[in-house]
Q: What sequence folds into this?
């Protein structure tokens, strides 16, 4: 069939605008575009130097789902008009279409329907030029064209029994692995039960299958995910996955890994880009046509936001680090739905466009007339200034030539060379030629060794044990020589041995023993990536020997300076393999005993991983209960026991612990208490009886403070009752004990429900030392909140108890019955005005309650509480400024939103222009002047800030600062910072006005807060700590304001949306502190998804002016002022993500950032779980922070 040529070849030499906006809500979508590919292409925004053209479109293809090339360069496409559900009575006729570019011009001229009559085929992959595997509903099918006419004439069922619960979760994403296996995915709602010669294979929920066609072996590669529609294998043989319904971005996957939503999983791994949108399809960029800086990056598709995305990947120990890069392609065209991406033979990138304004068949009716069932496109992304990649004739090539292709830059060429070589495996001299090729030089040796091993695996060649062990020993001697592909090499060795269970059952035992010897040789190699593979294989071996090896590895890693938890994949794999081999190591052979004796925490870690009663029993049997002193091992083991033992086991442990001396009892029970607290305060069986029996043998006066501490803690944590007498005695007789100890006893007493305990608490709360009273009221608030109401209100007026009382009252806001009681009693109470002010502020900050707030205003007589500067007040305030005022606290008062200080006044370059710049106020003004300016601003108007009050002929009164006047008009700056021009002819009256600072603005401040604010203003420009630095610091920011719609947009798209001019995003000004740092507490938090960290957003503009007048580019550096806790390095940028002019930009590039002349916008997202301290940003190079005014 000939295709109509579309004259589309657009090269957009513009920078990516990153216009990833979300289409309107699906149900509200009414603006359905015409299905015109010319218009769709014109709307695309491309990375600089890229071009896009239409490779193929309807009617040749409709609704492409997956595509893969064959060795001749033909593109095979699975397409479905039936999705999301076939109509009742309709005979499905979905197709596999083969597209060919006959003249190599980048456009398909030929289209052939290879197979039809299918129902929603979700995957296709060629097996040579005349056959293909097809994923079709419940089956994996094999189609073959035996007469080479381009149409399949044979069809057979390869595997059947895959679930069909949801049509977009069916098995899909067929990919050839370099090991000769076919990999394919299934999603969360699918439950598959597949009969194979090796038994029934099952996968409930999502995961990736691995199938070896030559033997029929089928197994699960990894489990989990929600809807994984992307899987690739990189140059080092490692797997990466994208998920069309998760928010983790790119995920690193390895054998037996488990990811979220896997049924029955209690622990799982997460992806590399938390907070990302849903991605579909995945490809590795390679070859010489792709820009060099893109090679090795991954391409995936944000189908909801109409963009093709790019991520960089680099190893990080046993894990990987992934960073988003500028997108190759974005558009606002609502029907562009990229769902698959594949590298073409010529090195360009093909993008399958599902083309549909409607997606999400769970939200929009299956039969919604707006759904498009007819159209689809394949777009071709290229770089016209770079030569295309050559495409070999694989079918004509001999073995030596094919082997040479395995070193090609293009991973696509390598894979087709492998696939063709699989057909040469039976040649008598094949592996002689392979060996000659492997040893043809030192450069690239590790890569050739891996490729050769994959070929041996595909050919069922026995592993070369001696050669492999020699290689492992060399790596052990020099861990720095371990190549990045070592784990894939070792994995292939193990798989080669494992498949002999099918291909050579008689020798399988010996071969697996050889494989185990390789694992043993690798356990001490100090390379985390290789160690990950060894740990996985130990779990798969599931033997007594592998259990010992696991503990050797675990002991080594736990002794390392690097926490095991910082290596997520390795930590998980150890946890999983330790559990897999539990029945072996729980027997505790001699070698294990030696390991545990040398490293007690190794056993404790393993027991914690298994979390079973049997594992706890092993630890219980090892503790030396009668030892005169407690060993560190015992303490570590007791901690693990507390975390996993049953209540009965804990009860037995407690009984044994109580037989020791008091010091031993104290230390061990404290350890047990700490560990059981992690299990929601799990209590030992019969704990009350055991403790009561022990107390019966003690004298109260002999109990040490340390003993009383564990008695108090166990009373609360294990809900004991027998300790009441001891606690009452201690409180009554030990008045000289520390306040901290007495607080512990009183809190423990409050947990007891007895009348005697209540009576004692009430007595303490009314009289006695302040610390005791605070502890008693705190206990009553927690256990008897109603009885505590009058005590709390009485405490509000007591300076040494008021702060605690504020907290108690705020905590009652969630209890309507308590709020009612507090309101009633508050109306009968008189409060100092300062106390009422602070309490009112606290109540409002916690969500507020109108009735309670009114009662507080009444009790504090706030309606009459205004600041009037009498001579006596002035003297008192200035004295307090000198003696106790805090400029640090005062700066926080100054920054309060309700005071609007920042909106009107600048400090240096940051802030408003309505009032005078306060940058050096303290250096030029005396404290009395500052104080008077605050309380009577109109009496102290600074020159140039006198106001005018103008009455217009329309009767409008306008007040502002005159900033310009001509014969024709007067220009005023108003209180909100805006400017207003008034024509002279419209002015009826023009008189001097008052200060724009509203009267009574400070009336809600307490005296202490007013003193602190004055102290801060006096310190400006006077104290070095409050003098604006001359360093080039960014001081004016905007921060994203939280709204439900903004958070929804981030949830539905990605954090990238915050870097765009999205109308759903509202930004507000945020200035730095005087020292140049930003208070994160003033930035709103967003949380995209339940598992996502809290994030905040900042943005600012910079002006770049190259010092070389002949240059349009300058290299600048953005550096952090202050350090993040996670890194300790001021320039690490850990916890930040960055966008420059809307483009995702790796933070490491901020230290060496080339920018063109002019204004640029920097947007930052801040992970609030990682970045917890204030920070600032300095600029180095030919750039300055751009003025906002």
A:
């Amino acid at each position: 069939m000939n295709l109509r040529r579309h004259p589309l070849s657009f090269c957009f030499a513009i920078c990516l605008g990153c216009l990833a906006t979300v289409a309107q809500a699906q149900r509200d979508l009414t603006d359905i575009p015409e299905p015109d590919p010319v218009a769709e292409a014109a709307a695309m925004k491309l990375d600089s130097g890229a071009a896009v053209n239409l490779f193929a479109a309807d009617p040749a293809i409709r609704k492409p789902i997956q595509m893969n090339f064959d060795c001749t360069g033909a593109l095979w496409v699975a397409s479905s008009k039936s999705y999301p559900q076939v109509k009742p009575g309709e005979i499905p006729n979905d197709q596999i279409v083969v597209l060919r570019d006959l003249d190599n011009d980048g456009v398909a001229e030929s289209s052939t329907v290879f197979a039809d009559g299918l129902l929603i085929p979700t995957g296709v992959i060629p097996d040579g030029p005349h056959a293909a595997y097809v994923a079709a509903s419940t089956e994996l099918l094999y189609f073959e064209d035996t007469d080479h006419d381009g149409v399949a004439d044979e069809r057979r069922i390869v595997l059947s029994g895959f679930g069909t619960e949801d049509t977009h979760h069916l098995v899909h994403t067929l990919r050839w692995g370099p090991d000769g296996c076919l990999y394919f995915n299934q999603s969360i709602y699918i439950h598959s039960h597949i009969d194979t010669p090796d038994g029934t294979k099952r996968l409930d929920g999502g995961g990736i299958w691995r199938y070896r066609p030559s033997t029929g072996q089928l197994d699960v590669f990894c489990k989990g995910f929600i809807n994984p529609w992307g899987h690739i294998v990189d140059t080092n043989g490692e797997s990466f996955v994208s998920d069309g319904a998760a928010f983790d971005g790119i995920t690193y996957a390895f054998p037996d890994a488990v990811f979220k939503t896997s049924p029955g999983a209690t622990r799982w791994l997460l992806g590399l880009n938390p907070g990302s949108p849903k991605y579909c399809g995945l490809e590795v960029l390679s070859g010489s046509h792709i820009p060099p800086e893109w090679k090795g990056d991954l391409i995936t598709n944000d189908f909801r936001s109409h963009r093709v995305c790019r991520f960089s990947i680099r190893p990080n120990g046993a894990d990987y680090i992934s960073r988003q890069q500028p997108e190759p392609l974005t558009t606002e065209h609502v029907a562009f739905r990229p769902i698959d991406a594949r590298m073409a033979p010529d090195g360009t990138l093909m993008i399958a466009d599902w083309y549909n304004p409607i997606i999400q068949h769970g939200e929009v009716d299956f039969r919604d007339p707006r759904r498009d069932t007819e159209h689809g496109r394949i777009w071709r992304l290229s770089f016209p200034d770079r030569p295309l990649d050559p495409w070999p004739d694989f079918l004509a090539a001999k073995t030596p030539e094919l082997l040479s292709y395995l070193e090609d830059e293009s991973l696509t060429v390598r894979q087709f060379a492998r696939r063709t070589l699989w057909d040469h495996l039976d040649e008598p001299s094949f592996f002689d030629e392979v060996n000659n090729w492997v040893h043809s030089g030192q450069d690239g040796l590790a890569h050739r060794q891996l490729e050769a091993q994959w070929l041996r695996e595909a050919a069922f060649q026995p592993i070369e044990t001696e050669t492999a062990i020699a290689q492992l020993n060399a790596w052990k001697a020099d861990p720095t020589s371990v190549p990045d592909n070592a784990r894939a090499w070792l994995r292939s060795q193990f798989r080669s041995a494992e498949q002999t269970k099918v291909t050579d059952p008689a020798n399988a035992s010996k071969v697996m023993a050889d494989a185990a010897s390789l694992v043993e040789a690798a356990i001490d190699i100090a390379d985390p990536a290789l160690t990950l593979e060894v740990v996985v294989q130990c779990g798969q071996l599931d033997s007594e020997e592998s259990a010992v090896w696991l503990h050797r590895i675990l002991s080594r890693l736990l002794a390392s300076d690097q926490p095991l938890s910082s290596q997520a994949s390795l930590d998980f794999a150890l946890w999983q393999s330790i559990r897999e081999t539990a029945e072996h190591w729980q027997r505790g052979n001699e070698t294990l005993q030696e390991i545990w004796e040398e490293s007690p925490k190794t056993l404790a870690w393993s027991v914690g991983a298994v979390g079973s009663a049997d594992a706890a029993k092993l630890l219980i049997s090892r503790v030396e209960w009668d030892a005169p002193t407690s060993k560190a091992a015992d303490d570590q083991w007791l901690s693990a026991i507390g975390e996993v033992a049953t209540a009965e086991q804990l009860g037995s442990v407690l009984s044994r612990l109580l037989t020791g001396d008091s010091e031993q009892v104290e230390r061990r029970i404290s350890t047990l208490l700490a560990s059981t607290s992690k299990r929601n305060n799990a209590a030992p069986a019969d704990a009350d009886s055991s403790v009561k029996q022990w107390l019966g043998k003690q004298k109260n006066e002999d109990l040490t403070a340390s003993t009383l501490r564990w008695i108090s803690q166990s009373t609360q944590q294990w809900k004991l009752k027998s300790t009441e007498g001891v606690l009452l005695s201690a409180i009554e007789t030990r008045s000289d004990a520390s306040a901290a100890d007495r607080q512990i006893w009183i809190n423990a007493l409050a947990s007891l429900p007895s009348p005697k305990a209540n009576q004692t608490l009430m007595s303490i709360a009314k009289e006695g030392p302040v610390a005791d009273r605070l502890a008693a009221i705190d206990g009553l608030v927690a256990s008897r909140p109603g009885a505590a109401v009058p005590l709390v209100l009485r405490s509000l007026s007591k300076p040494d108890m008021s702060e605690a009382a504020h907290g108690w009252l705020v905590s009652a806001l969630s209890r309507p019955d308590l709020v009612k009681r507090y309101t009633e009693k508050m109306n009968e109470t008189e409060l100092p005005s300062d106390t009422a002010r602070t309490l009112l502020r606290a109540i409002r900050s916690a969500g507020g309650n109108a009735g309670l707030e009114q009662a507080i205003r009444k009790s504090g007589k706030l309606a009459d509480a205004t600041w009037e500067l009498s001579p006596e007040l002035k003297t008192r305030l200035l004295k307090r400024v000198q003696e106790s005022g805090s400029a640090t606290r005062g700066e926080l008062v100054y920054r309060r939103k309700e005071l609007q200080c920042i909106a009107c006044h600048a400090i240096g370059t940051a802030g408003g222009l309505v009032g005078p710049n306060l940058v050096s106020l303290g250096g030029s003004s005396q404290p009395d002047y500052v104080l008077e300016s605050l309380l009577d601003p109109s009496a102290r108007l600074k020159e140039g800030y006198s106001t005018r009050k103008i009455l217009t002929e329309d009767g409008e009164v306008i007040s502002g600062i005159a900033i310009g006047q001509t014969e024709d008009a007067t220009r005023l700056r108003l209180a909100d910072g805006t400017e207003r021009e008034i024509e002279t002819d419209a002015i009826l009256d023009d008189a001097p006005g008052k200060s724009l600072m509203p009267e009574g603005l400070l009336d809600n401040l307490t005296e202490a807060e007013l003193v602190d604010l004055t102290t801060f203003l006096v310190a400006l420009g006077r104290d070095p700590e409050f003098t604006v630095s001359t360093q080039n610091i960014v001081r004016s920011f905007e921060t994203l304001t939280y709204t439900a719609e903004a958070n929804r947009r981030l949830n539905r798209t990605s954090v990238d949306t915050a870097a765009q001019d999205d109308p759903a995003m509202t930004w507000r000004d945020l200035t730095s502190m005087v020292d140049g740092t930003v208070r994160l507490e003033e930035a709103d938090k967003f949380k995209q998804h339940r598992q996502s960290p809290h994030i905040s957003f900042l943005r600012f503009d910079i002006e770049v002016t190259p010092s070389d007048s002949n240059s349009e580019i300058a290299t600048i550096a953005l550096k952090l002022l202050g350090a993040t806790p996670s890194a300790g390095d001021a320039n690490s940028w850990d916890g930040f993500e960055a966008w420059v002019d809307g483009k995702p930009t790796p933070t490491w590039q901020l230290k060496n950032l080339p920018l063109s002349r002019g204004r640029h916008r920097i947007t930052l997202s801040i992970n609030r779980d990682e970045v917890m301290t204030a920070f600032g940003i300095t600029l180095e190079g030919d750039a300055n922070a751009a003025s906002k005014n």
